[in-house]
Backbone:
């Protein structure tokens, strides 16, 4: 994903995006004419009350959903113009996801969970293993590689989730309430890790949260309410 | 292959459920193996029947006898190479459960018309020289530990000797083998001349004739000529190819192929529901996980293939285990059924058909859950975590 293809130097360019969900005969407008630009290398926090559209916006940027109107461009790629198949391949190459509930496969060990995105590449088994070890080392969980999720603490599971998110070295890391299910101490560790990925490894991170403590770690915070963004303070 | 670990791990998620489903598939395929063996035992001989052989029996029923004088008349019919006869002896060796076939035959003609029976020349020579001589198939000889030179008493349920004694004594002069695996090597054959002279009733009558035709392509015409020859006689005939005769013999038990097909259809339909339900449940339970796979880049087709692979792995592992067990057990059962179903074995083609069936079963049971998984929208699936 070359920066030269991006709009105005921004890695993520969301323009006049609307998202309407249909529930029976009722139309629910979640995002309304929303604009957003995220430069490469930024750590952005999206805050807002429940139902404000934070996760919906994250899904649109991650290519998990399509806008009702408007365009989403990431790294110069118009996501709304990609087929489902092309979008899946694009996600595999460019996006790392971190979920609130970790979303690990309970039947796989930590290292096999981390390996999952690499199964979609042409890497050999040995190369995949090398990448997995590196990712687990980055999140400080090399010693728990052979453990199943049920034997790991919440914080450890989330670190496995982050290792899975970064193992393909994606351009953009999308985190949906990454500390929402953790206690303060474990949450801080995860935020430290995200901060370090942003500062030391140059990862662009967009994090959805409703926790001001978490958003304080981001370089910029935007507030989403009633489908519209309002600027927060740039640190 | 790199996805195999993922597929296998998913199957191990609910070990009890997977084990029970697997067990039901294994049992279904053991049953498949047994039914294939039964079918082989009853109608398998049709495939091995000589294309150049016709069987002539009494028109109304096989249990009605035909005059021995027909042999010369049959031999004169155009297209007939030669003919010979057999008669059902219905004997018991020691115990009724030791059932096997014994028939009086004309040795030279019998061996000539049945080249699939391999008898060493010196044993054939002895048979021709021994009036009370009998040859027995390898399987029965091994079953009862008979060897050449033994005198075997067999009590007929039909035929008495002149003095009223129903126990006949035969000298084992030869042990024959089969040319093919499917050749029945359980019967005992003894000399008709000894039998006809010694029996109390039915002298000059035989059970049925076997004809060798000169040209197999003319078999139907020859059969018509034979039946025309004996039309309006006290013992009219029905002539048919040997394969049809064997099939008709098995048909006395009913339409075996239909019965086997009906049982298997019922069994596999049940398995279809059981396995289909397992797979559907498995997909429903991990909707969120499938959403995660899609989120990290798995395409809809890859998710479809994963679920289908899981269903196929389940049915193929169960199928192979079931077929393997059936293959291992049938020889043991065959020993117990040696007399009743001499050709009871699981043919190689049953393995091939069984394996294909296990793959088809996997595809059919997996397709709907797989389509369900394929159509999941990522954002919706993730919401269900």
Residues:
């Amino acid at each position: 994903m070359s920066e030269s293809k991006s709009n105005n130097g921004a890695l993520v360019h969301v323009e006049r995006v609307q998202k309407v969900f249909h529930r029976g005969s009722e139309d629910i407008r979640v995002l309304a004419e929303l604009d957003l630009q995220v430069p490469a290398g930024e750590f952005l926090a999206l805050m807002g009350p429940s139902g404000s559209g934070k996760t919906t916006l994250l899904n649109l940027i991650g290519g998990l959903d399509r806008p009702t109107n408007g365009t989403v461009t990431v790294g110069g790629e118009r996501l709304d113009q990609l087929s489902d198949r092309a979008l899946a391949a694009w996600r595999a190459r460019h996006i790392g996801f971190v979920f609130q509930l970790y979303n690990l496969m309970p039947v796989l060990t930590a290292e096999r969970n981390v390996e999952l995105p690499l199964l979609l590449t042409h890497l050999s088994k040995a190369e995949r293993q090398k990448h997995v070890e590196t990712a687990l080392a980055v999140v400080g969980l090399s010693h728990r590689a052979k453990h199943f999720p049920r034997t790991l603490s919440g914080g450890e599971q989330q670190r496995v989730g982050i290792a899975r998110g970064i193992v393909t070295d994606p351009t953009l890391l999308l985190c949906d309430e990454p500390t929402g299910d953790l206690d303060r101490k474990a949450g801080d560790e995860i935020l430290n890790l995200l901060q370090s990925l942003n500062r030391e490894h140059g990862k662009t991170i967009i994090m959805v949260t409703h926790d001001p403590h978490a958003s304080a770690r981001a370089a910029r915070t935007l507030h989403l309410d009633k489908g519209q963004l309002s600027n927060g303070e740039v640190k | 292959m790199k996805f195999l670990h993922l597929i296998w791990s998913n199957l191990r998620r609910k070990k009890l459920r997977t084990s029970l489903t697997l067990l039901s598939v294994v049992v279904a395929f053991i049953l498949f193996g047994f039914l294939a063996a039964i079918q082989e035992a009853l109608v398998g001989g049709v495939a091995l029947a000589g294309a150049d052989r016709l069987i002539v029996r009494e028109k109304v029923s096989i249990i009605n006898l035909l005059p021995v004088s027909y042999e010369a008349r049959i031999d004169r019919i155009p297209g007939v190479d030669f003919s010979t006869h057999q008669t059902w002896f219905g004997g018991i060796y020691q115990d009724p459960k030791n059932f096997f076939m014994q028939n009086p035959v004309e040795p030279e003609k019998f061996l000539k018309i049945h080249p699939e029976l391999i008898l060493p020349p010196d044993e054939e020579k002895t048979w021709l020289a021994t009036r009370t001589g009998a040859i027995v198939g390898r399987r029965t000889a091994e079953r009862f530990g008979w060897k050449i030179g033994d005198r075997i008493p067999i009590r007929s349920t039909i035929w008495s000797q002149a003095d009223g004694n129903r126990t006949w004594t035969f000298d084992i002069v030869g042990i024959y083998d089969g040319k093919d695996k499917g050749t029945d090597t359980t019967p005992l054959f003894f000399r008709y001349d000894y039998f006809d002279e010694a029996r109390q009733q039915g002298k000059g009558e035989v059970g049925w004739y076997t004809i060798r035709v000169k040209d197999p392509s003319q078999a139907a015409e020859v059969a018509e000529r034979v039946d025309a020859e004996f039309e309006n006689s006290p013992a009219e005939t029905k002539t048919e190819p040997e394969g049809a005769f064997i099939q008709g013999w098995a048909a006395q038990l009913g339409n075996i192929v239909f019965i086997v097909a009906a049982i298997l259809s019922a069994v596999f339909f049940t398995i279809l529901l059981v396995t289909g339900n397992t797979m559907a449940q498995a997909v429903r339970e991990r909707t969120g996980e499938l959403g995660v796979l899609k989120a990290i880049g798995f395409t809809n087709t890859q998710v479809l293939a994963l679920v289908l692979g899981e269903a196929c792995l389940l049915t193929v592992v169960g199928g192979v285990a079931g077929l393997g067990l059936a293959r291992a057990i049938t020889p043991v059962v065959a020993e117990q059924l040696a007399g009743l179903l001499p050709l009871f074995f699981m043919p190689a083609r049953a393995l091939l058909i069984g394996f294909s069936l296990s793959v088809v079963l996997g595809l059919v049971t997996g397709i709907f859950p797989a389509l369900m998984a394929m159509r999941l929208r990522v954002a919706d699936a993730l919401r269900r975590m």
Q: What stands out?
A: Confidence is low (pLDDT under 50) at residues 1-6 of chain A.
